[in-house]
Amino acid sequence: MLQKKVCILGPSGVGKTSLVKQFVEGIFSEKYLTSIGVKIDKKIVNEGFTPVQLLLWDLEGVDKYCGFNPRYLRGSSAFIFVADRTRMSSIAETMEIFSLAKQHLNVPAVLAINKQDLPLSIKWEDNLLDKHRDSFDSLFLTSAKTGQSVEQMFRRIAELVTA
Amino acid sequence: MHLSLIQSLGILDCVVLKRSHDEEFAIVQHNSAWFTAIFGAETNARFIHLHDQSLFLSDFLLDAQDFWDMHSTGQIQSGVWTEIISGEEYYLEAIAASSEHEQYLVIKNVEQQFKQQRQTLQVARELLISNDEIVERHDYLNERLRSILINNASEESGLPLYEAIQFADIGVIILDEKKEVMETNPAAYRLFEMRPGKDKAEVFNILYGLLNRQYPEKPNLFTSSGSFSGELYWHQPPITHKWLKIDILCVESGSGEHNYWVLTLSDITRVKYLMQTNEELVLHDSLTGLPNRQYFWKEISQLVDKNQPFFILNIDIVNFKHINELLGYIEGDEILKQACDRMNSVLGRDFFMTRIGADEFMIIQTLDNNANAARPGNAETIEKDFETKASNLGTKLVDLMAAPFYSNEGKQCELGIKVGISQFPRDASTAEGLLSCADIALNAAKNDFSKSIKIYSDKLKVEANRRLKLEAALKRAIEKEEFALHLQPIFDLESGKIMKAEALLRWQLDGENISPDEFIPIAERSALINTIGRWVIQQACTIQAHLNSININIPLSLNFSPKQIHDIKLINFIRECIDKTKIDATFLELEMTEGVLVHNYDKVRSFLNDIKQTGLGVSVDDFGTGYSSLSYLKHLPIDSLKIDRSFIDEVALDEDDQAIVGAILAMASALKLNVVAEGVETDEQKSYLLANRCLMAQGFIFSKALPLDEFISFLKKQKA
């Protein structure tokens, strides 16, 4: 079975672990539990193209308590960058992490704007996402809670790593 | 102590493996069920082959391999990872080590540390996210209200402002120029558990009381313009208590006729609760690890109670916001940490450094009472010594911070600091008073381009009061007709004819001529500059129309403040003035300093294109004193350069000045730009400039700036 490493990156609290949990186990927990270090999950995706086992490296969120560690990116076939739609600053932070990661490894990348189930207290600039869309292979508006676009996003990743 | 004993005492839960070759390891120490569960090694096994039992460990072994191949001593660590076996989670960390040609791999079960760390980080991150959300919502609403108020939408229909705040979940209070409450939204009432009533000022009155009691060092929140951010504690007996985040923003309407104060409020009790559940975070700043504002107040109050002499340095990092914009917040935070480390590196144990705001720090140094008593000299000498010590420390910090900083990506940036110093008990007898003195000194340093450090004195307080008085008077200067535009002629050096005139703003307050060097910076800081700038444009158009009516046709140039670039309706205003007075737009020119052109390049390019389309000329004022990058000359629509007077002063004698002036003239000629020499005061300067083909000049040798009627007489006399 073809195995491909995929790193999930982003600031803390955006829902990286929840997205993986929703995809691998189909469950979601309302309680926020911060991740520390690295946790690896596996899932086989075999619909419509070459079957592949995704090795999902869920990395601790980058923030003032945990810096960006490029060592974990080695051998990765794709990146998933996650931002939180309810915190506009998380977009800017994600873009900074994106630029740091791309300096080390230029592999396909998708952007997930997570927490689509939550209401917005701030209206985003209309073109904010458009500005960043072109930097990624795909952009998904996801909700780890409802499962919105989660399956599609990982299938897209499988497609990108087997292309 | 033997390793197995350490392990059996539960001090360290680890497995020690000695590398045989490649992925083969001898088991030196193994007594752990988890190792068997994850790696399949029996308790009595002597060797283990590590291949794909753990993806994370296999990846780390690549680094370990490189490390071992280098034959260096020491160790490298993998970082923490999680393994799940049969639904159970194991938290592990690996270490690759070398010792005397032997290579070891240690795998530790770090469950205890992991859980402790997660508990701390859980609180810290929840705090970070809650805080980010609150700050973001405040910033967003403030920006939205600012935009509505600047654009006067509220005056046209009242609706956008009403809508913007009516349904906001942040409390909003808007005050008019007289500090009377215009609007209080439902969320503001809810925060204080009140229902909207007839008296719109109810909530504001409570807030005002809280601000006065809890921020005694900031008595001028509603008298001087600018912004303020803080936290307030509100307690309503018997049980209600809340922590509130408050932002106060002074906004000038686009027309420049009104000032508004926007107060935004949020309940941050949860954030405070989170902080209290983590004691470390209550008194320390999470980014830098330094003591925070609360800790600072505790410390300074104790010193005052003990009547122990000390001084405080109030430090502000200049333009740090710009660094964040340039490098992003993650890198910005990194630079801030470096700045703290750098400052900390020169402080001894008797210093107490705190972070009291985003880019504000306080340093306290105590002096030993007994040591002072034993020293010869009177109290005045001791105070002087004290002052020298504080000043020396300030200078050391300023010098230290002047060296460049580098981001993780290797980008270079420069930070400067401004320092205000006050001393206990000389300057004040209370903590609040002392802080207020340090604040006055810091503001004086910020206002002085040539000095980075100011020590509090009564003179500074008088100056601060004068600035406040001038700021208040500036607001009324236009309606009281205290401003006047004087015209300084610009001459053709060959023909001696007046070619242009520069319009210079003059202000007379109660018979005193206030220098523009004094009032323009005050206007720029308070956003009054937009009102004044518009008055200058309107007045210049009127003067131009009057000159045209008496057959005088010479271009007028006007000074343009860097702050005016943010006046989004300025271009329309200029067009309206030109249309109204029916003057030829090509007879007006805007003078901008290099700083405006470089700092706001995109905004300026668009603005200047509009200006050029309207027909006005553009010149660069004080040329040569600003920036080394000259590429803007090529890309921006500029017509002329004005050589700064500092190069003209000694141009007849100083070879360096001659070289600079020569280079500017040559460059301007190549770029087909006109050149005006400023500050010409002697015949020698005039002759030198003429000989070197500088064709236009202004200065006292020709004429000072004149009131309009005198300028017209001067012009007529010259024609005659």
SSE layout and pairing:
The complex is a heterodimer of chains A (163) and B (720).
Chain A: E1 2-9, H1 16-25, E2 38-45, E3 52-59, E4 76-84, H2 88-104, E5 109-114, H3 128-133, E6 138-141, H4 150-162
Parallel strand pairs in A: 1-3, 1-4, 4-5, 5-6
Antiparallel strand pairs in A: 2-3
Chain B: H1 3-8, E1 14-21, E2 24-29, H2 33-39, E3 47-49, H3 55-69, E4 74-85, E5 88-99, E6 102-109, H4 111-150, H5 153-156, H6 159-166, E7 171-175, E8 181-184, H7 186-191, H8 202-214, E9 227-236, E10 240-252, E11 259-267, H9 269-276, H10 279-283, H11 293-305, E12 310-318, H12 320-327, H13 329-344, E13 351-357, E14 360-366, H14 369-374, H15 379-402, E15 405-406, E16 412-413, E17 416-424, H16 431-447, E18 453-455, H17 458-477, E19 483-492, E20 498-509, E21 512-514, H18 516-526, H19 528-549, E22 556-559, H20 570-581, E23 588-593, H21 594-599, H22 601-614, E24 617-623, H23 631-635, E25 640-643, H24 645-648, H25 655-670, E26 674-677, H26 683-691, E27 696-697, H27 708-719
Parallel strand pairs in B: 17-18, 20-22, 22-23, 23-24, 24-25, 25-26, 26-27
Antiparallel strand pairs in B: 1-2, 1-6, 2-3, 4-5, 5-6, 7-8, 7-11, 9-10, 10-11, 12-14, 12-17, 13-14, 15-16, 19-20, 19-27, 20-21
Helix pairs in contact in B: 4-6, 4-9, 12-13, 16-17, 17-18, 18-19, 19-20
Walkthrough of the structure:
The complex is a heterodimer of chains A (163) and B (720). In chain A, 28% of the residues lie in helices and 26% in strands. Chain A contains 4 helices and 6 strands. In chain A, β4 (76-84), α2 and β5 (109-114) form a beta-alpha-beta unit. The longest helix of chain A has 17 residues, at 88-104. Chain A is globular and about 45 Å long. The relative contact order of chain A is 0.23. The mean pLDDT of chain A is 91. In chain B, a hairpin with a 5-residue loop joins β7 and β8. The longest helix of chain B is centred in the N-terminal third of the chain and has 40 residues, at 111-150. The A-B interface holds A 12-13, 32-34, 36-40, 55, 61-65, 68-69, 71-72, 74-75, 86-90, 92-93, 95-97, 100, 103, 121-123 and B 55-56, 59, 62-63, 79-82, 84, 91, 114, 117-118, 121-122, 124-126, 128-129, 132-133, 136-137, 140, 169, 286-287, 328-331, 333, 408-409. β2 (38-45) of chain A pairs parallel with β4 (74-85) of chain B.
